[in-house]
């Protein structure tokens, strides 16, 4: 084989590899001004249509934020107050794992012969071959609702599993376990070995705390975002509650005093406040602890 032939083969291989890699990227189709992402959990960047979301990046939406990502025929839509990351790995057989801490995702996944996409939440895991479904994560429970296809849902703590078809759903409560529903027929629940969740409940570990703190810092920089602050107009304020989908952990509490009082933002929410501050607008004094 001549040198020219080898060069052409190598060039074609590189081009096909680059095209394949581009097809594996999640790109932004639609986004609001409260849709952001981070790769270091400290610095948050805006998402705009056409942007490529880095692999394993965390994507966050504010109280009015939405973003739709697409990869080929697949799409993932983030509803308001949602925090999740998407990781794709493997060379010959690509598999995607979505880690969803809080909020709601609408997913349309390409149908393949083998399961290739998993959604991990603090309470359940959803494994799919190809389908349209929604996953919602709250403070103490998570749910899966299927529009098309088949989704296997596993409840970690209670050791329960169910295969959901079209117009069927499952709710996994941290205490009550799994309950299922169906418009035409009710899916069956089987017993499996209990598992330890890969995803922490928001605010209970250092990982989740770091993500929450970054989320709170990111949102507090938006002038019209009030989810991480509380105001008092007649005396000393206290740390704000709520970020990352309405969790009970104030990480960036802020207090405002408009009548000469004194505000001390010390530990917003239930003791996980990290950067509270007080502001006095009429002669008072605010201090940062």
UniProtKB/TrEMBL annotation:
Keyword entries, A-Z: Signal
Region feature Disordered, mapped onto this chain: 213-289
Keyword Signal included in the entry's annotation: yes
Residue stretches making up the FecR protein domain: 60-151
Composition skew (Basic and acidic residues), residue ranges: 214-227
Comp. bias regions, Low complexity: 249-259
Leader peptide range in chain numbering: 1-21
Highest taxon in the source lineage: Bacteria
Amino acid composition bias (Gly residues), ranges on this chain: 234-248, 260-289
The protein's name in its UniProt record: FecR protein domain-containing protein
Organism the protein comes from: Rhizobium laguerreae
């Amino acid at each position: 084989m001549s040198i020219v032939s080898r060069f052409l083969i190598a060039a074609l291989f590189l081009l096909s590899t680059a095209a394949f890699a581009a097809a594996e990227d999640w790109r932004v189709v639609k986004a609001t001004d409260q849709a952001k992402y981070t790769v270091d959990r400290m610095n948050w960047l805006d998402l705009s249509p056409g942007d490529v979301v880095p692999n394993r990046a965390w994507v966050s939406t504010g109280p009015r934020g939405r973003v739709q990502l697409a990869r080929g025929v697949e799409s993932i839509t983030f509803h308001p107050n949602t925090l999740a990351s998407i990781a794709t790995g493997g060379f010959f057989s690509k598999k995607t794992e979505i880690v969803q801490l809080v909020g709601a995702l609408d997913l349309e996944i390409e149908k393949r012969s083998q399961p290739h996409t998993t959604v991990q939440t603090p309470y359940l895991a959803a494994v799919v071959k190809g389908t349209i479904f929604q996953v919602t994560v709250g403070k103490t429970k998570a749910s899966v609702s299927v529009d098309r296809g088949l989704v296997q849902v596993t409840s970690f703590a209670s050791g329960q599993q169910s295969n959901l078809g079209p117009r069927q759903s499952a709710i996994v409560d941290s205490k009550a376990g799994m309950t299922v529903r169906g418009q035409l027929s009710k899916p069956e629940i089987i017993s499996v070995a209990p598992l330890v969740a890969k995803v922490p409940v928001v605010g209970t570990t250092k990982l989740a705390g770091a993500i929450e703190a970054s989320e709170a810092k990111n949102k507090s920089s938006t002038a019209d975002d009030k989810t991480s602050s509380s105001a008092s107009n007649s005396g000393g304020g206290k740390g704000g509650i709520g970020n990352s989908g309405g969790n009970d952990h104030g990480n960036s509490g802020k207090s405002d005093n408009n009548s000469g009082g004194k505000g001390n933002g010390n530990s917003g929410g239930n003791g996980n406040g990290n950067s509270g501050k007080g502001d006095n607008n009429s002669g008072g004094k605010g201090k940062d602890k």
